[in-house]
């Protein structure tokens, strides 16, 4: 079993994710091999909150070019985590 801090890579701070916080939903970039159960346990362990639902999205890397060289940004996995009523993640509160 992976450590919880290896599963949760970083939070996503965008305008859309900030709007989802009003619905008690938080967005994170997670390890590509992590499943919903591992993500739920990692969030509960790190932030000491109760998770209601986990939705995951596989995001394909975008094509990038530098001069004549082409490549792709790496693929990643996002998780939208819905917390139970009354629970908040203090990391996001100041934003």
Strand order of the largest sheet: 1-2-6-3
Strand content: 35-45%
CATH architecture classification: 2-Layer Sandwich
- The CATH superfamily appears as RRM (RNA recognition motif) domain
CATH topology: Alpha-Beta Plaits
Q: What is the tally of helical segments?
A: 3
Rg over alpha carbons: 15 Å
Q: In whole angstroms, how far apart are the ends?
A: 33 Å
Q: Which parts are unreliable, with pLDDT below 50 for 5 consecutive residues or more?
A: none
Choose one word for the global shape: globular
Task: Please report the total strand number as a whole number.
Answer: 6
Query: Which structural class is indicated by helix and strand composition?
Result: alpha+beta
Helices and strands, in N-to-C order? HEHEHEEEE
The percentage helix is: 10-25%
Number of domains: 1
Largest sheet: 4 strands, antiparallel
- What is the C-level CATH assignment? Alpha Beta
Average pLDDT, all residues: 93
Give structural attributes.
95 residues, alpha+beta, Alpha-Beta Plaits, two-stranded antiparallel ribbon, 23% helix
Structure, explained:
With 95 residues, the chain is of the alpha+beta class. The chain has a single domain, classed as Alpha-Beta Plaits (2-Layer Sandwich), CATH 3.30.70. The chain has three helices and six strands. β4 (63-66) and β5 form a beta hairpin. The protein starts with a helix and ends in a 12-residue tail after the last strand. The model has no long low-confidence stretch (mean pLDDT 93).
